[in-house]
Design a protein that fits this description.
The protein has 146 residues and is mainly β. It has two helices and ten strands.
Length: 146
């Protein structure tokens, strides 16, 4: 299917990349239809709104720079997207990229959880105080790589 994207203009994407967010994403609750795309720069991804082409989120798998990350969210939030097994779970953090890209941060407090089986997603809120809305990716990656 041909879609208009913020990062790449018009592109063809596979229907299987579509993700439905029944509750939207915080601040964008009215936008429910997205596609998940690989970014040209790994390890990043794009979550592109199908409802408003100007809206797209840069995502990263939090385990890339925080292997100790844990998803501490209420079970009912998992039930909202019919998530039953860890194998069906995709986890992402929304990335904020300021002018100085070395200071980009990831929101580990509000992870994006996707059920890869039924293509339902939601933004959850972690109950673990360890996870904040701004984790500096490059600094934390340097610690991991030691």
């Amino acid at each position: 299917m041909l879609i208009q994207t913020k990062p790449y203009g018009k592109i063809d994407v596979d229907e299987r990349q579509k993700i439905f967010f029944p509750f939207g994403i915080l601040g964008f609750e009215n936008l429910k239809n997205y596609v998940l795309m690989d970014a040209k720069q790994q390890p990043f991804y794009w979550l592109q709104s199908l409802d408003v082409p100007e809206i797209a989120f840069v995502l990263i798998n939090p385990f890339v720079f925080r292997p100790d990350y844990s998803i501490d969210i209420p079970p009912e939030e998992m039930e909202d997207i019919d998530l039953q097994t860890p194998e069906d779970t995709l986890v992402f953090a929304i990335v904020t990229i300021p002018e100085n890209q070395s200071k980009m941060t990831a929101n580990l407090q509000g992870p994006i959880i996707i059920n890869r089986k039924n293509k339902l997603g939601r933004q959850a809120i972690s109950s673990n105080q360890k996870w904040k809305t701004r984790h500096t990716i490059l600094e934390e990656l340097a610690v991991v790589k030691g």
